[in-house]
Amino acid sequence: MARYLFTTWEGGGHVQPMLLVARDLAARGHAVLVLSDPCNGPDAEALDVPFCAWTTAPFQTGKTRDDDRLKDHEADNPLAVIHRLLDRVMTGPALAYAQDTLAAIDAFAPDVVVTQELLLGPMMAAEARGLPLALLAANVWSLPTMPGAPPFGAGMLPAANDEERAMHTMVGQMSRGFFQAGLPDLNAARAALALPPLDDVFAQLDIARAILLATSQAFDFAPHPLPAPFAHVGPYLADPAWVEAFAPPPGDTPLVVVSFSSLYQAQEPALRAIIAALGQLPVRGVVTTGPTIDPAEFEAPPHVAVVRSAPHGELLKDAALFITHAGHGSTLRPLLAGVPLLCLPMGRDQNDNAARVAHRGAGLTLPADAGSGAIAAAVRRLLDEPAFKAAAEDLGAAIRADEATRGAAVALEALAERP
């Protein structure tokens, strides 16, 4: 038996996959502990995963729009988003995250520390205690550190020629340079822990013995084989604990399921445009607003239900189409069910996920501010043209194969056994 300490923060879709990996390890006889925001405690409890909360580091007690400390929807350009990440998650609170992690290490005595890829503080804590470190990313890789992968954020496709490869290199170098604004805070935290200074923010990731991508190799644009220490371990997806049972409107018209972020991204205008579009069409709609938005804010026709949550796993068995912001979980779960997508990405990893869907012919992409007419036209195409359904089923079959052989637990066991 080995002991594993997991650390993450309330950043939306990456929490549930980490809890599922911890549950898998516990089922294999290992001791696990998850350190995260108090609001994630119920999700851990629902999976019977031991949990403790941040105390010194920033934390959220709720999941409403007012609780969100990142508020990246308020940033008006990519550089501002990076600065928010640095100041509020990666480097500004790095020492506080490290101190909480050190306290958990000393109390729990783990053999391995596993952390979400943006939390540099727990990485420093593992380094300070000389413990093996793994990073677990529940999405396509989001940082400019993987050779051969398209730059993150803009939805770029794999480079097809030397000119595109040169452009990817330039964009990646520029992005890497933007993150160096966090280096003074990072090195101040390292000095407080008696660790030597670094000359690059991303050098902190170099102590990781494994970087596990909890996504599907069949879905990703990353190079194959992946450069060490990266490894695809398959997707870890499930309904969160706060989802409630719900039945769609009755009838035999096509069922369209709508789901945007569980975090707040000022998605009300997009949801209203989608509801208006579905109101024009002979479909049944289920629109889930998530924990940050009250369904009562929206008016909808009788054949479109607007609810805070619904079990997507059940709805997808009958769904003909899924409309989404293209977060990682909200993209892969419909594909696993062979359901085509209409993507309206709003930032984060969403442009990149949408690009992977459209490139494989499994859906269409519209801008987040698309009007109801454009959305209705896209819905008609996706429902009327069988090629989208066929492509979604083909891609979904490949993703299901990756899910069936997902290997985070085995990879982490190997890390505990390695000298």
Word description of this protein:
The chain starts with a strand and ends with a helix. The protein folds into two domains: 3-238, 3-Layer(aba) Sandwich (Rossmann fold); 255-402, 3-Layer(aba) Sandwich (Rossmann fold). The model has no long low-confidence stretch (mean pLDDT 94). It contains 14 helices and 13 strands. The strands form two sheets. It has a seven-stranded parallel sheet, with helices on both faces. A six-stranded parallel sheet has the order 10-9-8-11-12-13, with helices on both faces. With 419 residues, the protein is α/β, with parallel strands linked by helices. The longest helix is centred in the C-terminal third of the chain and has 19 residues, at 386-404. The radius of gyration is 21 Å and the shape is globular. It has helices spanning 15-27, 41-46, 78-90, 94-108, 120-129, 162-179, 183-192, 268-279, 312-315, 328-336, 350-359, 372-384, 386-404, 408-417, and strands spanning 3-7, 31-36, 51-53, 112-115, 133-137, 210-213, 230-232, 255-259, 284-288, 304-307, 319-324, 341-343, 363-365.
